Amino acid sequence: MTLLDSRDLQGSNEVGEDTWELFESIEQSFGVDLGDYHDLAGISILELSQRIDGLAKYPVEDSCLSSVAFNRLRRAFQKVTETPRSSLRPSTRIHDLLPWRTRHLQWASIQSELGLELPRLNLPSWLLVLCLVLPVSLLLYARLFMGLRISGGIIAMSSIVLTLLALRAAMLYPARAIPASIETVGGLAKAVIARNYNVFAGAHGSSPERGILPSLRLLVAMETCISIEKILPETRIPSGLNIY
Asked: How far is CA 155 from the centre of its chain?
């Protein structure tokens, strides 16, 4: 490896704000102290799962964590949404249980009922697209069809300002979109484990291969908004995640 390649590799593994927050979320979920985050730069998902297993020393698994989480989640949905037990299956779509208008409120109620942290809801993609497209579209419409005399430079600068204001206003809109990886009750159960692994493993045991590694992959996917299929055991943090 040349000196230039070595510097590029080191730079790609620097621990920035995004990586720092990711390691903090992992510590919180798995109930471990990972030590100096800078020493973890360049670690693979598999290596990190093995380190977590050594640090946590969970008891040996005696129950299927997915089943435990699903049963708790089903009881919470029953109480909050008054859905019959027979209608709540792992394949049941959350969209069918939580209507858009009140979803953010019911989501908070389910989290309170569980006493566990749920994944964050997202802003709808259409709202973000609207914030990006609407300002420049209105300015171009005013110039082309309403006779407003504004230059291309003013349109560009005004579009940037208006887009930033629109995005800031959008942050006040309650997030209600469900992440793609957890659209079913079964998917949400796995996500609940990933965000609260220490709670489940401390009570019901853990398996490094069946428990820690899959949950770590899912947690990293949720925190980075990357598809779970792209979070592989050999993926390295942070370079393989395109975060800083």
From this structure: 35
Q: What is the mean pLDDT of residues 153-179?
A: 84
Query: Could you tell me what percentage of the chain is helix, strand and coil, using 3-state DSSP and rounding each to the nearest 5?
Result: 65, 5, 30
Any long-range contacts for 131-139 (C-beta under 8 Å, 24+ apart)?
131/163, 131/166, 131/167, 131/170, 132/163, 134/166, 135/159, 135/162, 135/163, 135/166, 136/163
Strands (E), 57-174: none
pLDDT tens per residue, range 95-133: 999 999 999 999 999 999 999 999 999 888 888 888 888
Question: With 0-12 CB in 10 A as exposed, 13-18 as middle and 19+ as buried, what is 84?
Answer: exposed
Q: Would you say residue 193 has pLDDT above 90?
A: yes
Cβ pair 226, 132 in contact under 8 A: no
**Rounded mean pLDDT of 139-156?**
83
Alpha carbon distance, N-terminus to C-terminus of the chain: 23
Q: How far is CA 203 from CA 58, 63, 64, 196, 218, in A?
A: 9, 9, 11, 12, 21
CB 198 within 8 A of CB 29: yes
Burial readout 12-49 (b: 16 or more C-beta within 10 A, e: otherwise): ebebeeebeebbebbbebbbbebeeeeebbbbebbebb
102 with 116: CB under 8 angstroms? no
Residue 122's identity, in one-letter code, is N
